């Protein structure tokens, strides 16, 4: 009887899992293993919010695996060393895993695959996380895409109704099991109870992902195209952290959305499903960019141009950065978003753009500072998505034209939260103010008396002029 190790990372599910299915089909015994090696992801080791999610996702997966006959073996340390030890302990002849696309993960996985094959161990990786591998989509000239619309036009033309793989009904594990660390030994949960607001908001794990997907498709998808920009509404899918940790695959999401649209003639259902698929496309685009431009988590894509951008020095901007992080900028929509992030590990996408624009353009604080804060505080912190989002808002990345776009937080707030429902939820100091005064309360200083709410840390009009001048200063450099 042959044994295979299933090396799990961010593919924490049983359904539509090509590596798992291959292991079960090719070998009599399969042992799922998770090796905790955060240092191998440096400098982008998982942040605090991601570690909280990972703990609960591993717990859920362990319970699911146990129910069908296999334990989840947990180890900690160097991945290759740990795999070699497990191979020796189980007499395994193969290791299967799902591909990751971050630069450090690619380098590590390449080393592991070469080393295992030199040990005469079968080592094979599978696409579990994307609709399309990043190297399979190219422009007519054979180059990677830098603009989303032609990218998605190409991708969606190839997107035929996917059929997700069924979960195995049973996994036969080796009779003699290697030792496993208890989950708590990984110390993933925060040492201080700052994540108390996460539990009411989220259900990590494959079951939670299915619930979120079904609720979205059945209840919210018809209104998605119009309602997704309203931060006070629960109108989005909430699937981003489930996708990041591989508790559900994009193939499953597309298949479920297409099936709902085909069987339900509710007004807006087809348009909602198409727009939702387009948002999955943005995730694909983000991974496409990260694969082809691996320096972008730290450097602007158009480095020759934006490498000269006159950001403020850290010493003169640190107080503003801290006020932004704490949700104390004095600009309600920004503070609401930052407080939602700290409390729930999530921020509405429209608000993410607003808070990022204020940081990078009104405050002239480098986008990397914002990206690192999001990385530590978002439960859906994906290096690909985080990088694309911050470079897009800062104007230095793909598809960022016009790169000098500056979001006006007051106009954005009045447009997308006209009655202040979102503002009152997250900035309760202002709850008693009339709707018309909520978005720019500093214009009537008397209204702020006794509220404890701060005055704005920046003049929006003056800082807009300053930002445009900064962008004008680098305008002459050819971004190509």
UniProtKB/TrEMBL annotation:
Photolyase/cryptochrome alpha/beta domain span: 2-131
Cofactor: binding details: Binds 1 FAD per subunit.
Class of enzymatic activity (EC top level): lyase
Pfam families (UniProt xref): DNA_photolyase, FAD_binding_7
Single GO biological process annotation from the record: response to light stimulus
Enzyme Commission number: 4.1.99.3
Top-level taxon of the source organism: Bacteria
Keywords, alphabetical: Chromophore, FAD, Flavoprotein, Lyase
Reactions the enzyme catalyzes: cyclobutadipyrimidine (in DNA) = 2 pyrimidine residues (in DNA)
Electron transfer via tryptophanyl radical (site feature) positions: 311, 367, 390
Cofactor(s) this protein cannot do without: FAD; (6R)-5,10-methylene-5,6,7,8-tetrahydrofolate
Cited PROSITE patterns: DNA_PHOTOLYASES_1_1, PHR_CRY_ALPHA_BETA
Residue positions binding FAD: 224, 236-240, 276
MF terms (GO), sorted A to Z: deoxyribodipyrimidine photo-lyase activity; DNA binding; FAD binding
Functional summary from the UniProt entry: Involved in repair of UV radiation-induced DNA damage. Catalyzes the light-dependent monomerization (300-600 nm) of cyclobutyl pyrimidine dimers (in cis-syn configuration), which are formed between adjacent bases on the same DNA strand upon exposure to ultraviolet radiation.
Family the entry assigns: Belongs to the DNA photolyase class-1 family. Belongs to the DNA photolyase family.
The protein, known as: Deoxyribodipyrimidine photo-lyase
Source species of the chain: Stenotrophobium rhamnosiphilum
Classification of source organism: Bacteria, Pseudomonadati, Pseudomonadota, Gammaproteobacteria, Nevskiales
